[in-house]
């Protein structure tokens, strides 16, 4: 499985999750896990997604998600899972 | 499954604490480029480098994108050119043509430095070695990206004092040749003792003759991450402090290991080593000096500095070796003056001097690094400094080096601006007493007694 971590950080507003998830669904990216909190008005979300069936290559998807983030005033970041698993799992 | 805390910790390291992979360095053997015809050698070298390394920069950028981690430098190291050009070069000027070819190849593939304009003369110099050494001032003055290193001693062979004496003059000549740009040529020239074959860091990287045809070596960084981590251990005892450094070093190195494996896979070139060095940059918060100050020193250079550095260096290694299958290169904290804001400040306020820096090099890699000294320093004094550093390396069975910049036209108290990652440095005073008679004795310092292990 080709797992990617998407993190979204920024000022909370209506429809952040909806926008991101709609985009992912349109591009056949499957969401495996979501956690989300609001700390002092700041929206903080982490998603684990599976990109096996993705309609677009990683780079393009990352750029487009970043673009969506810019539109709604949040920072969206895509990273392949390994950078986290390597660092935090022995 | 990963949790949000872990993901945020990693991203905080990258975004706020300046964690990066300092360099992916591709080592390329040029032994198969040897020829007795100079034009043929140049052509073969250019062709080999531009073929083997053609995808290095693009793959580096791809990996940066995939993991959202900056890979600051993509570089190349090659077989010491004194060996490659030995049969074709009949005078120092011939070697300069090879330097220009290396520069052209580096620009073509888009790497910012190419190392290996080198000679290994720890015991003696061949004619070719001497031609190469004598060509260094011109070679570094007429190229932008070529880096040069000379190994003048080792624990096994002792110190080649003829080469040390010559290098004092060469460093001065290089400063003179590049005086319009604050003697910047000297920033690309390192004199080593016990030089490693697989060092990915410039200016001392070369691809040793014991290495494969091509190899990927990676240098990690992350002083800012270590500094932030040990803030949580303020006031705690050494056990807690060491444990914190070790765990952080493990995490940093794992990122390096991941990047190295990915680069190796995508370029289809074997993975060599991870270099565990903590490499600072002039950016605030990316400083080894700040770590030492966080450990408990008012300023770097204060009594206790050497002990704090020894501790830091050792814990970084202990954490790092578990994170990577192969560790090599220099692997230690770097203490360059101009590339570390905390070091610059300490020198400027008089807390840190050349002698204390020398003491610090006994317990860490790599040596007297990026230190600006007055342009009127005699060649024999520079040779004396090189001899002292080499002796530390030879006796302690470790790598030591000297990258010192006698800035033409500048004296103590003035500042030199090198730009970019090379930073800026205050010109430091050098001991005024002469060592000319010592340096000019000629010959070799024999290998130390503990090198006879067979």
From TrEMBL, chain A:
InterPro entries: ACT-like_dom_sf (IPR045865), ACT_dom (IPR002912), UPF0237/GcvR_regulator (IPR050990), UPF0237_ACT (IPR022986). It comes from the Bacteria. Signal peptide: none annotated. CDD domains: ACT_1ZPV (cd04872). Residues 5-79 form the ACT domain. SUPFAM superfamilies: ACT-like. Belongs to the UPF0237 family. PANTHER family: UPF0237 PROTEIN MJ1558. This is UPF0237 protein OW255_11595. It comes from Lacrimispora xylanolytica. The lineage of its organism: Bacteria, Bacillati, Bacillota, Clostridia, Lachnospirales.
């Amino acid at each position: 499985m080709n797992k990617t971590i998407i993190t979204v950080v920024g000022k909370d507003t209506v429809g952040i999750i909806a926008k991101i998830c709609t985009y992912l669904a349109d591009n056949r990216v499957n969401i495996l896990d979501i956690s989300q909190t609001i700390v002092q008005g700041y929206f903080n979300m982490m998603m684990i997604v599976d990109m096996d069936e993705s309609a677009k290559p990683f780079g393009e998807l990352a750029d487009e998600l970043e673009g969506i983030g810019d539109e709604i005033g949040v920072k969206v970041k895509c990273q392949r899972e390994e950078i986290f698993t390597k660092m935090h799992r022995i | 499954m990963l949790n949000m805390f872990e993901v945020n910790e990693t991203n905080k390291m990258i975004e706020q604490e300046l964690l990066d992979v300092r360099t992916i360095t591709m080592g390329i053997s040029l032994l198969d480029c040897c020829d007795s015809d100079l034009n043929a050698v140049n052509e073969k070298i250019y062709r080999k480098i531009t073929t083997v390394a053609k995808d290095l920069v693009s793959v580096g950028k791809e990996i940066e994108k995939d993991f959202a981690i900056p890979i600051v430098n993509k570089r190349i190291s090659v077989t010491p050119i004194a060996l490659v050009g030995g049969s074709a070069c009949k005078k120092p000027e011939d070697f300069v043509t090879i330097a220009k070819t290396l520069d052209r190849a580096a620009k073509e593939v888009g790497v910012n430095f190419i190392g290996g304009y080198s000679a290994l003369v720890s015991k003696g110099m061949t004619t070719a070695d001497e031609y190469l050494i004598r060509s260094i001032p011109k070679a570094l003055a007429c190229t932008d990206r070529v880096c040069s290193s000379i190994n003048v001693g080792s624990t096994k062979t002792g110190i080649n004092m003829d080469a040390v004496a010559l290098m004092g003059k060469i460093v001065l000549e290089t400063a003179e040749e590049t005086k319009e740009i604050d003697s910047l040529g000297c920033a690309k020239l390192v004199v080593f003792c016990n030089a490693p074959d697989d060092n990915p860091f410039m200016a001392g990287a070369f691809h040793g003759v014991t290495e494969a045809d091509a190899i990927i070596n990676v240098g990690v960084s992350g002083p800012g991450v270590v500094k932030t981590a040990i803030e949580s251990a303020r006031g705690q005892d050494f056990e807690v402090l060491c444990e914190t450094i070790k765990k952080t070093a493990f995490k940093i190195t794992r990122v390096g290991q991941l990047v190295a494996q990915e680069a190796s896979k995508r370029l289809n070139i074997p993975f060599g080593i991870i270099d565990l060095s903590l490499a600072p940059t002039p950016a605030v918060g990316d400083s080894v000096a700040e770590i030492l100050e966080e450990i408990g020193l008012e300023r770097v250079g204060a009594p206790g500095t050497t002990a704090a550095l020894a501790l830091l260096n050792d814990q970084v290694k202990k954490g790092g070796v578990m994170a990577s299958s192969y560790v090599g290169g220099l692997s230690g904290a770097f203490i360059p003056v101009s590339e570390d804001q905390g070091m610059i400040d300490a020198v400027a306020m008089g807390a840190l001097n050349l002698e204390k820096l020398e003491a610090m090099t006994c317990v860490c890699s790599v040596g007297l690094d990026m230190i600006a000294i007055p342009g009127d320093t005699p060649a024999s004094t520079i040779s004396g400094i090189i001899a002292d550093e080499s002796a530390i390396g030879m006796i302690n069975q470790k790598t030591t080096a000297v990258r010192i910049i006698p800035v033409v036209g500048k004296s103590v108290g003035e500042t030199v601006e090198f730009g970019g990652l090379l930073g800026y440095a205050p010109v430091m005073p050098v001991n005024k007493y002469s060592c000319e008679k010592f340096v000019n004795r000629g010959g070799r310092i024999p290998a130390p007694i503990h090198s006879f292990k067979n």
